[in-house]
Amino acid sequence: MTIKDFKVLVTGATGFLGKRLTAILDAAGARVYPVSRSLGYDLRDKAEAYRAFLESRPEVAVHLAARVGGIGANQEHPDHFFTDNMRMGMNVIEAAASAGARVVAVGTVCSYPKHCPVPFREEDLWNGYPEETNAPYGVAKRSLLVMCAAYRARRGLKYAYLVPCNLYGIGDNFDARTSHVIPALIRRISEAAQAGRKSVTLWGTGKATRSFLYVDDAAEAIARAVGGLDYEGAINLPGSEEITIENLASIIASLVGFQGALFWDPQKPDGQPRRAIDGSRAKDILAWTPSVGLEEGLRKTVDWWLAQGKDLVQELR
């Protein structure tokens, strides 16, 4: 369905994924209403969420706003990762239902059970508790699917709930305190290369596996959902083939020109043992599959970081 002239409210519009999505929606002729904390909206406050909808009167609301971070950040502030994400999601869905807007909510692969059969399928979402290091975040985001379904049953809410695997790409968060695995590895290994070190020690055993989705591909899938998707249940957004963190680090080392040794610290957590998701439902319903391969996406991300990294490192310090 065309989205030309659609009135679309996007929460988290100034974030990593939000910037890509708003660019795609703008190019397609949608009337985008960006909402984020940096634009003066604190969606943890119910009144602020209602204000955003009253000002824009959207037909569709895409909920991207979230408190996110890597394993370390989740372990340091599990309470905030739960309460902030619950409050934002509940307020946005409530305000959207009151405004008669359709909702496209974006969840997280962290919501899947810790020991879920690979590839993760949508019907397995509730078959166990998430991996402990990011369970508060995963449970909060998973709960929003329940809220959407309840509001459909009681108030006729139209919604789609998308579950992307691990995102990465140009413009990702490279802050050493809060970054996810790919930007964290790129930063650590590139800094070791620039300093001429002979080795670098990385978190965990390196044996855990992940699948990664380039941010532009994720934004394209979400934009397709904006066009009219109304689906009761979750839809996975898959990425690359499953890869060990050890092999991922080796690829990154090659891309940044690091020739030293990579050591691992097993005293640090690996997170979920394996993580890769099935994309059959997205292919059938959205007619979408990812187009950017892992090595291509990594090269783009590394090239961007190396081109801008010195300035960014100063900012992040």
3D structure, described in words:
The chain is α/β, with parallel strands linked by helices and 317 residues long. The protein has 10 helices and 12 strands. The strands form 4 sheets. A 6-stranded parallel β-sheet has the order 2-1-3-4-5-10, sandwiched between helices. Strands 6-9 form a two-stranded parallel sheet. A two-stranded parallel sheet has the order 7-12. α1 links the parallel β1 and β2. The protein starts with 6 loop residues before the first strand and ends with a helix. Residues 312-317 have low confidence and may be disordered.
Summarize the helices and strands and which ones pair or pack.
Elements: E1 7-11, H1 16-27, E2 31-35, H2 46-56, E3 60-63, H3 71-76, H4 78-99, E4 102-106, H5 135-155, E5 159-164, E6 166-168, H6 181-194, E7 199-203, E8 209-210, E9 212-214, H7 215-226, E10 234-237, E11 243-244, H8 245-256, E12 261-265, H9 280-285, H10 294-316
Parallel strand pairs: 1-2, 1-3, 3-4, 4-5, 5-10, 6-9, 7-12
Antiparallel strand pairs: 8-11
Helix pairs in contact: 1-7, 2-4, 4-5, 6-8, 6-10, 8-10
